[in-house]
Amino acid sequence: MNAQMKLFSFFSEIIKILNQNLIQTWTFSTINNPPQFILEQLQNNIQEFSEKIRKYGDDLYNSLNVDASEWEQYNILDLRAISASFSQYLRTSKINDQLRKKILTLLNTINEYLQNKQDGKVISIAISPIHVHYQSWIVDYDDFEQGKEIGHGTSAKVYKGTYKKTHEDVAIKKFQFPNLNSAHFQSYQREVAVLATAQHPTLLKLIGTTDKPPFCIITEWMSGGSLFHAIHRPGYYDMTQRTIAAIDIA
């Protein structure tokens, strides 16, 4: 019963911190607290909890490592996204002078914090937009040769390219933004995570992704074109073949 109460107390504190920083309410908490406030709250709670469970074994205690580099990495990435969001808000919104002053003060504090981390030689992985679980997929853009454009959308253009190391054909999806603001950041992370996780014979194989401009996602080259273009090409598939394809996809 005592252990259950400790667990309940710990998770109650974590939930309280998270509730203060939901997408609907995070701005108030962020404006009124220093950049490292949430990080320190989480670390303090987890440190306190880990000390309480230490008697149950070192393996369990060590699994809650508050000094792990990932904590700082995530905090720096979050602060960069917060800085981009507030900077955009100042450019596009009409706000009163008092709020503008508070936001500018926050931005200056965040920039100083990030600069200190860079001066302190925080590892470069900390400012990578790629989640730590997928950083094995990071590649150098210079290792690829960009060819002709084969398609484009609202946020990216797709090119046929060549992987110089293996001479294999690849598809290079080059995003049309020089920096990652909040929305682009989340979209880019999500797409990389999906492609890195969803390894399947019927899906395009992920070759790699860049973590600095130009931001690109590189996959294997599909020489026959996409299913979308095949289905919409007159006379390419008859109704029976389209039905079979639809059933297979479903």
UniProtKB/TrEMBL annotation:
GO terms for molecular function: ATP binding; protein kinase activity. Pfam families: Pkinase. ATP binds at residue 174. The keyword ATP-binding applies. InterPro entries: Kinase-like_dom_sf, Prot_kinase_dom, Protein_kinase_ATP_BS, Ser/Thr_Kinases-Pseudokinases. Coiled coil: none annotated. Keywords: ATP-binding, Nucleotide-binding. Residues 144-250 form the Protein kinase domain. This is Protein kinase domain-containing protein. It comes from Trichomonas vaginalis (strain ATCC PRA-98 / G3).
